[in-house]
Amino acid sequence: MKQLALSMLRTPSRVAGAGVGVRSLATKAGGTTKLFINGEFVESQASEWIDVRNPATQEVVTRVPRSTQKELDEAAHSAELAFKSWRRTSILTRQRKMLDLQHAIRGNMDRLAHSIVAEQGKVLGDARGDVLRGLQVVESMAGITEYLLGHKLEVSADMDTYTVREPLGVVAGICPFNFPAMIPLWMFPVALATGNTCLLKPSERDPGAAMMLAELCRDVGIPDGVLNVVHGSHETVDFLTGDPRVRAVSFVGGDKAGKHIYERATSHGKRCQANLGAKNHAVVLADADRDHAINAIVGAAFGAAGQRCMALSVAVFVGEAGDWIPEIVERARRLRVDGGLEEGADLGPMISPQALQRASELIQSAADEGATVLLDGRGVQVPKYPNGNFLGPTVIDGATSAMQCYQQEIFGPVLTCVRVASLDEALALVNSNRYGNGASVFTQSGSSARRFQSEVEAGQVGINVPIPVPLPMFSFTGNKGSFLGDTNFYGRAGVSFYTQLKTVTSHWRRQAGVAEGAAVHMPTHT
Ligand code: NAD
Q: Fewest C-beta in 10 Å: which of 13, 165, 321, 429?
Protein backbone atom coordinates (compact mmCIF):
# COMPACT_ATOMS: atom_id res chain seq x y z
CA MET A 1 0.00 0.00 0.00
CA LYS A 2 2.80 2.36 1.01
CA GLN A 3 4.89 1.33 -1.99
CA LEU A 4 1.92 2.07 -4.17
CA ALA A 5 1.45 5.50 -2.68
CA LEU A 6 5.11 6.36 -3.17
CA SER A 7 5.34 5.18 -6.74
CA MET A 8 2.09 6.91 -7.57
CA LEU A 9 3.44 10.12 -6.13
CA ARG A 10 5.66 10.40 -9.12
CA THR A 11 2.85 9.99 -11.63
CA PRO A 12 0.66 12.89 -12.68
CA SER A 13 -2.50 10.84 -12.11
CA ARG A 14 -1.86 10.58 -8.35
CA VAL A 15 -0.74 14.11 -7.71
CA ALA A 16 -1.63 16.62 -10.36
CA GLY A 17 1.56 17.86 -11.90
CA ALA A 18 3.91 15.97 -9.61
CA GLY A 19 6.61 15.74 -12.27
CA VAL A 20 9.77 17.80 -12.23
CA GLY A 21 9.10 21.46 -12.75
CA VAL A 22 5.35 21.02 -12.47
CA ARG A 23 3.48 21.98 -9.37
CA SER A 24 1.44 19.75 -7.14
CA LEU A 25 -2.05 19.79 -5.72
CA ALA A 26 -0.73 21.74 -2.77
CA THR A 27 0.37 24.72 -4.85
CA LYS A 28 -0.81 25.07 -8.40
CA ALA A 29 1.17 27.25 -10.81
CA GLY A 30 -0.28 30.73 -10.85
CA GLY A 31 -2.97 29.46 -8.50
CA THR A 32 -3.20 29.46 -4.77
CA THR A 33 -1.31 27.74 -2.01
CA LYS A 34 -3.59 25.57 0.09
CA LEU A 35 -3.68 25.09 3.82
CA PHE A 36 -2.96 21.58 5.07
CA ILE A 37 -5.33 20.89 7.91
CA ASN A 38 -6.24 17.52 9.34
CA GLY A 39 -4.71 15.65 6.42
CA GLU A 40 -6.44 17.65 3.70
CA PHE A 41 -5.34 20.40 1.38
CA VAL A 42 -7.99 23.06 1.73
CA GLU A 43 -8.55 26.35 -0.03
CA SER A 44 -8.35 29.23 2.41
CA GLN A 45 -11.30 31.57 2.87
CA ALA A 46 -8.84 34.41 3.48
CA SER A 47 -9.69 37.87 2.24
CA GLU A 48 -6.01 38.84 1.94
CA TRP A 49 -3.43 37.05 -0.17
CA ILE A 50 0.29 37.49 -0.69
CA ASP A 51 1.81 37.09 -4.16
CA VAL A 52 4.83 34.80 -4.41
CA ARG A 53 6.96 35.97 -7.32
CA ASN A 54 9.73 34.15 -9.11
CA PRO A 55 12.75 36.30 -8.15
CA ALA A 56 14.30 35.83 -11.60
CA THR A 57 11.24 36.92 -13.59
CA GLN A 58 8.71 38.58 -11.21
CA GLU A 59 6.05 36.17 -12.48
CA VAL A 60 3.48 35.28 -9.86
CA VAL A 61 4.11 31.63 -8.99
CA THR A 62 1.33 31.29 -6.45
CA ARG A 63 -0.69 33.28 -3.94
CA VAL A 64 -0.46 32.61 -0.23
CA PRO A 65 -3.37 33.25 2.11
CA ARG A 66 -3.26 35.15 5.34
CA SER A 67 -5.06 32.36 7.18
CA THR A 68 -8.25 33.33 8.95
CA GLN A 69 -8.53 32.93 12.73
CA LYS A 70 -11.07 30.14 12.12
CA GLU A 71 -8.60 28.24 9.95
CA LEU A 72 -5.83 28.67 12.49
CA ASP A 73 -8.16 27.47 15.20
CA GLU A 74 -9.12 24.42 13.13
CA ALA A 75 -5.47 23.58 12.53
CA ALA A 76 -4.66 23.86 16.25
CA HIS A 77 -7.73 21.79 17.13
CA SER A 78 -6.72 19.12 14.64
CA ALA A 79 -3.17 19.00 16.04
CA GLU A 80 -4.48 18.84 19.59
CA LEU A 81 -6.79 15.92 18.79
CA ALA A 82 -4.14 14.08 16.78
CA PHE A 83 -1.69 14.37 19.67
CA LYS A 84 -3.85 12.12 21.83
CA SER A 85 -3.26 9.12 19.59
CA TRP A 86 0.08 10.08 17.97
CA ARG A 87 1.80 10.27 21.36
CA ARG A 88 0.62 6.71 22.03
CA THR A 89 1.93 5.41 18.68
CA SER A 90 4.77 3.02 19.25
CA ILE A 91 8.23 4.41 18.82
CA LEU A 92 8.92 1.82 16.14
CA THR A 93 5.97 3.11 14.12
CA ARG A 94 7.28 6.66 14.35
CA GLN A 95 10.73 5.46 13.38
CA ARG A 96 9.21 3.64 10.40
CA LYS A 97 7.45 6.84 9.31
CA MET A 98 10.78 8.67 9.34
CA LEU A 99 12.32 5.96 7.18
CA ASP A 100 9.40 6.15 4.76
CA LEU A 101 9.53 9.93 4.71
CA GLN A 102 13.23 10.01 3.93
CA HIS A 103 12.62 7.60 1.06
CA ALA A 104 9.79 9.76 -0.26
CA ILE A 105 11.83 12.96 -0.02
CA ARG A 106 14.75 11.35 -1.81
CA GLY A 107 12.41 10.19 -4.58
CA ASN A 108 11.02 13.71 -4.95
CA MET A 109 14.31 15.56 -4.70
CA ASP A 110 14.08 17.12 -8.15
CA ARG A 111 10.52 18.20 -7.72
CA LEU A 112 11.36 19.89 -4.42
CA ALA A 113 14.50 21.49 -5.84
CA HIS A 114 12.61 22.91 -8.84
CA SER A 115 10.03 24.42 -6.55
CA ILE A 116 12.82 26.09 -4.58
CA VAL A 117 14.38 27.52 -7.75
CA ALA A 118 11.03 28.89 -8.90
CA GLU A 119 10.11 30.54 -5.62
CA GLN A 120 13.39 31.28 -3.85
CA GLY A 121 15.69 31.74 -6.84
CA LYS A 122 18.74 29.71 -5.81
CA VAL A 123 20.53 27.68 -8.47
CA LEU A 124 19.41 24.10 -8.98
CA GLY A 125 22.45 22.37 -7.47
CA ASP A 126 22.21 24.54 -4.39
CA ALA A 127 18.47 23.89 -4.17
CA ARG A 128 19.22 20.16 -4.09
CA GLY A 129 21.66 20.88 -1.26
CA ASP A 130 18.86 22.68 0.57
CA VAL A 131 16.71 19.53 0.38
CA LEU A 132 19.61 17.20 1.16
CA ARG A 133 20.67 19.00 4.32
CA GLY A 134 17.08 18.77 5.58
CA LEU A 135 16.81 15.16 4.50
CA GLN A 136 19.79 14.37 6.70
CA VAL A 137 17.75 15.47 9.71
CA VAL A 138 14.97 13.09 8.72
CA GLU A 139 17.53 10.32 8.33
CA SER A 140 18.91 11.06 11.77
CA MET A 141 15.39 10.74 13.18
CA ALA A 142 15.32 7.14 12.01
CA GLY A 143 17.57 6.74 15.05
CA ILE A 144 14.92 8.12 17.40
CA THR A 145 14.95 4.88 19.38
CA GLU A 146 18.53 5.64 20.38
CA TYR A 147 17.86 9.34 21.07
CA LEU A 148 14.99 8.54 23.43
CA LEU A 149 16.80 5.94 25.48
CA GLY A 150 16.63 6.87 29.14
CA HIS A 151 18.63 6.12 32.28
CA LYS A 152 17.77 3.69 35.00
CA LEU A 153 19.40 3.06 38.36
CA GLU A 154 18.51 1.07 41.42
CA VAL A 155 18.72 3.88 43.97
CA SER A 156 17.86 1.86 47.06
CA ALA A 157 16.74 -1.64 47.95
CA ASP A 158 13.86 -2.56 45.63
CA MET A 159 13.68 1.04 44.47
CA ASP A 160 14.47 2.20 40.93
CA THR A 161 14.63 5.64 39.37
CA TYR A 162 14.36 5.94 35.61
CA THR A 163 13.91 8.69 33.09
CA VAL A 164 11.30 8.99 30.36
CA ARG A 165 11.29 11.60 27.60
CA GLU A 166 7.71 12.58 26.83
CA PRO A 167 6.42 14.73 23.98
CA LEU A 168 5.17 18.23 24.80
CA GLY A 169 1.97 18.31 22.72
CA VAL A 170 1.29 20.71 19.89
CA VAL A 171 4.40 22.59 18.75
CA ALA A 172 4.83 25.29 16.11
CA GLY A 173 7.53 26.01 13.53
CA ILE A 174 7.98 29.44 11.91
CA CYS A 175 10.34 29.49 8.92
CA PRO A 176 12.39 32.00 6.90
CA PHE A 177 12.59 32.24 3.12
CA ASN A 178 16.19 31.24 2.55
CA PHE A 179 16.01 27.46 3.05
CA PRO A 180 12.47 26.49 2.03
CA ALA A 181 13.08 22.75 2.58
CA MET A 182 15.96 22.47 5.05
CA ILE A 183 14.54 24.63 7.79
CA PRO A 184 11.04 23.07 7.91
CA LEU A 185 12.96 19.78 8.04
CA TRP A 186 14.99 21.00 11.04
CA MET A 187 11.66 21.31 12.81
CA PHE A 188 8.77 18.98 12.10
CA PRO A 189 10.59 15.62 11.69
CA VAL A 190 12.18 16.03 15.14
CA ALA A 191 8.87 17.17 16.60
CA LEU A 192 6.96 14.25 15.06
CA ALA A 193 9.53 11.56 15.80
CA THR A 194 9.43 12.54 19.47
CA GLY A 195 5.62 12.18 19.51
CA ASN A 196 4.45 15.78 19.14
CA THR A 197 2.07 17.19 16.59
CA CYS A 198 3.02 20.28 14.64
CA LEU A 199 1.71 23.49 13.17
CA LEU A 200 4.16 24.61 10.52
CA LYS A 201 4.25 28.09 9.04
CA PRO A 202 6.53 28.26 6.00
CA SER A 203 7.79 31.61 4.80
CA GLU A 204 5.01 33.41 2.96
CA ARG A 205 7.63 34.12 0.28
CA ASP A 206 8.29 30.49 -0.74
CA PRO A 207 5.91 27.94 0.78
CA GLY A 208 6.01 25.44 -2.11
CA ALA A 209 8.64 23.04 -0.74
CA ALA A 210 6.93 22.86 2.66
CA MET A 211 3.63 22.01 0.94
CA MET A 212 5.30 19.21 -0.97
CA LEU A 213 6.79 17.89 2.26
CA ALA A 214 3.31 17.92 3.80
CA GLU A 215 2.05 15.98 0.82
CA LEU A 216 4.80 13.41 1.28
CA CYS A 217 3.92 13.09 4.97
CA ARG A 218 0.34 12.38 4.00
CA ASP A 219 1.39 9.85 1.38
CA VAL A 220 3.62 7.88 3.72
CA GLY A 221 0.69 7.61 6.12
CA ILE A 222 1.54 10.09 8.83
CA PRO A 223 -1.92 10.40 10.41
CA ASP A 224 -4.24 13.32 9.82
CA GLY A 225 -3.60 16.29 12.05
CA VAL A 226 -0.09 15.26 13.08
CA LEU A 227 1.37 17.85 10.70
CA ASN A 228 -0.65 20.89 9.70
CA VAL A 229 0.56 23.75 7.53
CA VAL A 230 -0.82 27.26 7.97
CA HIS A 231 0.13 30.44 6.16
CA GLY A 232 0.33 34.16 6.69
CA SER A 233 2.65 36.57 8.38
CA HIS A 234 2.38 38.58 11.60
CA GLU A 235 -1.18 37.58 12.55
CA THR A 236 -0.47 33.89 12.02
CA VAL A 237 2.73 34.23 14.02
CA ASP A 238 0.86 35.96 16.84
CA PHE A 239 -1.65 33.12 16.88
CA LEU A 240 1.09 30.47 17.05
CA THR A 241 2.97 32.28 19.81
CA GLY A 242 -0.14 33.10 21.85
CA ASP A 243 -2.52 30.15 21.57
CA PRO A 244 -2.50 28.07 24.78
CA ARG A 245 -2.62 24.80 22.85
CA VAL A 246 0.86 25.45 21.42
CA ARG A 247 3.49 24.29 23.89
CA ALA A 248 6.71 25.19 22.07
CA VAL A 249 7.79 27.44 19.20
CA SER A 250 10.76 26.98 16.88
CA PHE A 251 11.73 30.03 14.87
CA VAL A 252 14.40 30.72 12.29
CA GLY A 253 14.61 34.14 10.68
CA GLY A 254 15.67 37.72 11.21
CA ASP A 255 16.34 39.60 14.46
CA LYS A 256 13.21 41.73 14.56
CA ALA A 257 10.74 38.89 14.12
CA GLY A 258 12.84 36.59 16.29
CA LYS A 259 12.93 38.91 19.29
CA HIS A 260 9.20 39.52 19.04
CA ILE A 261 8.47 35.81 18.70
CA TYR A 262 10.80 34.78 21.52
CA GLU A 263 9.36 37.36 23.90
CA ARG A 264 5.77 36.65 22.99
CA ALA A 265 6.10 32.87 23.09
CA THR A 266 7.99 32.77 26.39
CA SER A 267 5.68 35.34 27.99
CA HIS A 268 2.85 32.93 27.14
CA GLY A 269 4.71 30.16 28.96
CA LYS A 270 6.02 28.35 25.88
CA ARG A 271 9.44 26.95 25.16
CA CYS A 272 11.11 28.83 22.37
CA GLN A 273 14.24 28.31 20.31
CA ALA A 274 15.00 31.16 17.92
CA ASN A 275 17.85 31.26 15.40
CA LEU A 276 18.40 34.84 14.27
CA GLY A 277 20.68 36.85 11.99
CA ALA A 278 24.40 36.56 11.50
CA LYS A 279 27.61 38.19 10.39
CA ASN A 280 30.10 35.38 9.92
CA HIS A 281 33.81 36.15 9.78
CA ALA A 282 36.59 34.27 8.03
CA VAL A 283 39.99 35.08 9.49
CA VAL A 284 42.74 34.49 6.95
CA LEU A 285 46.32 34.11 8.14
CA ALA A 286 49.20 34.52 5.72
CA ASP A 287 50.34 30.93 6.34
CA ALA A 288 47.06 29.50 5.01
CA ASP A 289 46.84 27.34 1.89
CA ARG A 290 46.24 30.31 -0.41
CA ASP A 291 44.27 28.60 -3.14
CA HIS A 292 42.05 26.67 -0.78
CA ALA A 293 41.34 29.73 1.37
CA ILE A 294 40.46 31.94 -1.59
CA ASN A 295 38.13 29.35 -3.13
CA ALA A 296 36.47 28.66 0.21
CA ILE A 297 35.82 32.35 0.85
CA VAL A 298 34.52 33.05 -2.65
CA GLY A 299 32.17 30.04 -2.50
CA ALA A 300 30.86 30.82 0.96
CA ALA A 301 30.47 34.56 0.40
CA PHE A 302 28.61 34.42 -2.90
CA GLY A 303 26.92 31.00 -2.98
CA ALA A 304 23.13 31.22 -2.65
CA ALA A 305 23.61 34.93 -3.48
CA GLY A 306 24.86 35.38 0.09
CA GLN A 307 21.41 34.52 1.45
CA ARG A 308 22.62 31.93 3.94
CA CYS A 309 22.73 32.45 7.67
CA MET A 310 26.18 30.82 7.56
CA ALA A 311 27.44 32.78 4.54
CA LEU A 312 30.90 34.24 5.07
CA SER A 313 30.10 37.92 4.83
CA VAL A 314 33.28 39.35 6.42
CA ALA A 315 36.83 38.31 5.54
CA VAL A 316 39.48 39.48 7.99
CA PHE A 317 42.94 39.43 6.41
CA VAL A 318 45.84 39.30 8.81
CA GLY A 319 49.02 41.04 7.65
CA GLU A 320 50.24 39.93 4.22
CA ALA A 321 47.18 37.80 3.60
CA GLY A 322 45.62 41.12 2.53
CA ASP A 323 47.61 40.78 -0.70
CA TRP A 324 45.20 38.01 -1.73
CA ILE A 325 42.21 40.31 -2.01
CA PRO A 326 42.77 41.07 -5.75
CA GLU A 327 42.65 37.33 -6.45
CA ILE A 328 39.39 37.05 -4.51
CA VAL A 329 38.02 39.83 -6.69
CA GLU A 330 39.13 38.02 -9.85
CA ARG A 331 37.54 34.72 -8.86
CA ALA A 332 34.35 36.46 -7.73
CA ARG A 333 34.19 38.30 -11.05
CA ARG A 334 34.25 34.98 -12.90
CA LEU A 335 31.15 33.65 -11.11
CA ARG A 336 28.14 33.43 -13.37
CA VAL A 337 25.01 35.24 -12.26
CA ASP A 338 21.94 33.75 -13.92
CA GLY A 339 18.53 32.15 -13.53
CA GLY A 340 18.66 29.16 -11.21
CA LEU A 341 17.86 26.61 -13.93
CA GLU A 342 20.51 27.87 -16.34
CA GLU A 343 23.45 25.58 -16.98
CA GLY A 344 26.58 26.85 -15.24
CA ALA A 345 24.81 29.42 -13.07
CA ASP A 346 26.71 30.06 -9.83
CA LEU A 347 24.35 32.45 -8.15
CA GLY A 348 20.76 33.40 -8.76
CA PRO A 349 18.72 36.45 -7.86
CA MET A 350 18.00 37.86 -4.43
CA ILE A 351 14.60 37.13 -2.98
CA SER A 352 12.90 40.47 -3.68
CA PRO A 353 13.40 43.92 -5.21
CA GLN A 354 13.35 45.31 -1.66
CA ALA A 355 16.18 43.01 -0.56
CA LEU A 356 18.16 44.03 -3.65
CA GLN A 357 17.53 47.69 -2.96
CA ARG A 358 18.64 47.37 0.67
CA ALA A 359 21.85 45.55 -0.26
CA SER A 360 22.57 48.15 -2.96
CA GLU A 361 22.15 50.97 -0.45
CA LEU A 362 24.56 49.27 1.97
CA ILE A 363 27.14 48.97 -0.83
CA GLN A 364 26.70 52.69 -1.49
CA SER A 365 27.07 53.44 2.23
CA ALA A 366 30.44 51.63 2.20
CA ALA A 367 31.70 53.90 -0.57
CA ASP A 368 30.28 56.96 1.18
CA GLU A 369 31.91 56.01 4.48
CA GLY A 370 35.38 55.63 2.95
CA ALA A 371 35.72 51.96 1.98
CA THR A 372 36.66 50.91 -1.55
CA VAL A 373 34.21 48.91 -3.64
CA LEU A 374 36.66 46.75 -5.59
CA LEU A 375 33.96 44.78 -7.36
CA ASP A 376 30.51 46.30 -7.70
CA GLY A 377 27.68 43.91 -8.57
CA ARG A 378 25.02 46.59 -8.79
CA GLY A 379 23.42 46.74 -12.20
CA VAL A 380 24.73 43.35 -13.27
CA GLN A 381 23.26 42.38 -16.64
CA VAL A 382 21.50 39.03 -16.94
CA PRO A 383 20.17 39.17 -20.51
CA LYS A 384 17.67 36.32 -20.30
CA TYR A 385 16.16 37.63 -17.05
CA PRO A 386 15.94 41.42 -17.35
CA ASN A 387 13.42 41.66 -14.52
CA GLY A 388 15.26 39.56 -11.94
CA ASN A 389 16.49 40.81 -8.57
CA PHE A 390 20.11 40.23 -9.48
CA LEU A 391 23.11 41.56 -7.64
CA GLY A 392 26.51 40.45 -8.84
CA PRO A 393 29.30 39.48 -6.46
CA THR A 394 30.52 42.56 -4.66
CA VAL A 395 33.79 42.99 -2.76
CA ILE A 396 34.34 45.88 -0.38
CA ASP A 397 37.87 46.53 0.84
CA GLY A 398 39.16 48.70 3.66
CA ALA A 399 36.05 48.41 5.80
CA THR A 400 36.08 49.23 9.50
CA SER A 401 33.87 47.92 12.25
CA ALA A 402 32.12 51.29 12.48
CA MET A 403 30.76 51.15 8.92
CA GLN A 404 27.20 50.18 8.04
CA CYS A 405 28.41 47.50 5.63
CA TYR A 406 30.10 45.80 8.59
CA GLN A 407 27.42 46.46 11.20
CA GLN A 408 24.42 45.29 9.19
CA GLU A 409 23.60 41.81 8.00
CA ILE A 410 23.48 42.51 4.23
CA PHE A 411 22.18 39.04 3.31
CA GLY A 412 23.34 39.37 -0.27
CA PRO A 413 26.42 38.48 -2.36
CA VAL A 414 28.61 41.09 -0.70
CA LEU A 415 31.97 40.33 0.91
CA THR A 416 33.27 42.95 3.30
CA CYS A 417 37.05 42.80 3.73
CA VAL A 418 38.80 44.11 6.81
CA ARG A 419 42.59 44.24 7.19
CA VAL A 420 44.24 43.75 10.58
CA ALA A 421 47.81 43.35 11.79
CA SER A 422 47.57 40.26 14.04
CA LEU A 423 45.51 37.29 15.12
CA ASP A 424 44.89 39.15 18.40
CA GLU A 425 43.30 42.00 16.50
CA ALA A 426 41.26 39.59 14.37
CA LEU A 427 39.93 37.78 17.44
CA ALA A 428 39.05 41.07 19.13
CA LEU A 429 37.10 42.12 16.04
CA VAL A 430 35.15 38.87 15.75
CA ASN A 431 34.43 38.77 19.47
CA SER A 432 33.14 42.33 19.60
CA ASN A 433 30.56 41.59 16.90
CA ARG A 434 27.06 41.22 18.29
CA TYR A 435 26.38 38.06 16.31
CA GLY A 436 27.83 34.62 17.03
CA ASN A 437 26.60 32.18 14.43
CA GLY A 438 29.86 31.08 12.86
CA ALA A 439 33.50 32.01 12.36
CA SER A 440 36.26 30.31 10.40
CA VAL A 441 40.01 30.51 10.41
CA PHE A 442 42.29 29.64 7.50
CA THR A 443 45.79 28.70 8.54
CA GLN A 444 48.31 25.88 8.39
CA SER A 445 49.43 26.52 11.95
CA GLY A 446 47.93 24.10 14.46
CA SER A 447 48.63 26.42 17.35
CA SER A 448 46.95 29.43 15.68
CA ALA A 449 43.96 27.26 14.80
CA ARG A 450 43.73 25.91 18.31
CA ARG A 451 43.97 29.35 19.82
CA PHE A 452 41.26 30.62 17.46
CA GLN A 453 39.00 27.70 18.31
CA SER A 454 39.28 28.25 22.04
CA GLU A 455 39.12 32.07 22.11
CA VAL A 456 36.61 32.88 19.39
CA GLU A 457 33.11 33.74 20.58
CA ALA A 458 31.06 32.09 17.87
CA GLY A 459 28.87 29.03 18.13
CA GLN A 460 30.11 27.21 15.05
CA VAL A 461 33.80 27.29 14.30
CA GLY A 462 35.45 26.29 11.02
CA ILE A 463 39.13 25.47 10.72
CA ASN A 464 39.93 25.61 7.01
CA VAL A 465 36.18 24.99 6.54
CA PRO A 466 34.05 27.88 5.28
CA ILE A 467 30.48 26.93 6.32
CA PRO A 468 30.77 24.76 9.41
CA VAL A 469 27.08 23.84 9.74
CA PRO A 470 27.12 20.65 11.81
CA LEU A 471 25.52 17.49 10.50
CA PRO A 472 22.49 16.33 12.49
CA MET A 473 24.32 13.92 14.76
CA PHE A 474 25.37 17.27 16.27
CA SER A 475 23.17 20.36 16.66
CA PHE A 476 23.12 23.81 15.07
CA THR A 477 24.93 25.79 17.74
CA GLY A 478 24.75 29.50 16.97
CA ASN A 479 25.14 31.80 19.96
CA LYS A 480 25.33 35.45 21.13
CA GLY A 481 22.96 37.63 19.11
CA SER A 482 22.34 34.81 16.62
CA PHE A 483 20.32 32.70 19.04
CA LEU A 484 17.64 33.16 21.68
CA GLY A 485 16.79 30.23 23.92
CA ASP A 486 18.96 27.56 25.39
CA THR A 487 18.23 24.39 23.46
CA ASN A 488 19.43 24.25 19.87
CA PHE A 489 17.93 22.81 16.70
CA TYR A 490 18.15 19.13 15.71
CA GLY A 491 20.44 16.41 17.07
CA ARG A 492 20.29 15.65 20.80
CA ALA A 493 19.49 19.26 21.63
CA GLY A 494 16.53 19.20 19.21
CA VAL A 495 15.19 16.05 20.85
CA SER A 496 15.53 17.73 24.26
CA PHE A 497 13.72 20.81 23.00
CA TYR A 498 10.68 18.81 21.90
CA THR A 499 10.49 16.57 24.96
CA GLN A 500 9.88 16.86 28.66
CA LEU A 501 12.10 14.75 30.86
CA LYS A 502 10.22 12.80 33.51
CA THR A 503 11.89 10.85 36.32
CA VAL A 504 10.02 7.96 37.87
CA THR A 505 10.96 6.42 41.21
CA SER A 506 9.31 3.07 41.87
CA HIS A 507 9.38 0.81 44.87
CA TRP A 508 8.41 -2.85 44.57
CA ARG A 509 8.99 -4.28 48.00
CA ARG A 510 10.10 -7.88 48.34
CA GLN A 511 8.49 -8.20 51.76
CA ALA A 512 5.03 -6.93 51.06
CA GLY A 513 2.83 -6.52 54.11
CA VAL A 514 5.56 -5.86 56.73
CA ALA A 515 4.48 -2.75 58.64
CA GLU A 516 7.19 -0.05 58.86
CA GLY A 517 5.36 2.92 60.28
CA ALA A 518 5.12 6.33 58.66
CA ALA A 519 8.45 8.03 57.96
CA VAL A 520 8.15 11.78 58.25
CA HIS A 521 11.75 12.70 57.58
CA MET A 522 13.10 13.41 54.07
CA PRO A 523 13.93 10.03 52.44
CA THR A 524 17.66 9.64 51.81
CA HIS A 525 17.57 6.06 50.47
CA THR A 526 20.69 5.17 52.41
P1 NAD B 1 12.07 37.13 8.58
O2 NAD B 1 12.37 37.36 10.02
O3 NAD B 1 11.63 38.27 7.76
O4 NAD B 1 10.89 36.03 8.47
C5 NAD B 1 10.94 34.83 9.16
C6 NAD B 1 9.53 34.42 9.58
O7 NAD B 1 9.03 35.35 10.53
C8 NAD B 1 8.55 34.38 8.43
O9 NAD B 1 7.78 33.21 8.54
C10 NAD B 1 7.72 35.64 8.61
O11 NAD B 1 6.37 35.44 8.23
C12 NAD B 1 7.81 35.92 10.09
N13 NAD B 1 7.88 37.36 10.40
C14 NAD B 1 8.60 38.29 9.73
N15 NAD B 1 8.50 39.48 10.35
C16 NAD B 1 7.70 39.30 11.42
C17 NAD B 1 7.23 40.14 12.46
N18 NAD B 1 7.58 41.43 12.52
N19 NAD B 1 6.42 39.61 13.39
C20 NAD B 1 6.09 38.32 13.36
N21 NAD B 1 6.51 37.46 12.39
C22 NAD B 1 7.30 37.94 11.44
O23 NAD B 1 13.33 36.39 7.97
P24 NAD B 1 13.63 36.08 6.44
O25 NAD B 1 13.92 37.35 5.74
O26 NAD B 1 12.58 35.18 5.90
O27 NAD B 1 14.97 35.22 6.58
C28 NAD B 1 16.25 35.79 6.58
C29 NAD B 1 16.79 35.93 7.98
O30 NAD B 1 16.80 34.66 8.62
C31 NAD B 1 18.23 36.41 8.01
O32 NAD B 1 18.37 37.35 9.03
C33 NAD B 1 19.03 35.15 8.32
O34 NAD B 1 20.26 35.37 8.97
C35 NAD B 1 18.07 34.44 9.21
N36 NAD B 1 18.36 33.01 9.25
C37 NAD B 1 18.99 32.54 10.34
C38 NAD B 1 19.33 31.20 10.39
C39 NAD B 1 20.04 30.64 11.58
O40 NAD B 1 20.05 29.42 11.73
N41 NAD B 1 20.61 31.46 12.45
C42 NAD B 1 19.01 30.35 9.33
C43 NAD B 1 18.36 30.89 8.23
C44 NAD B 1 18.04 32.23 8.20
A: 13
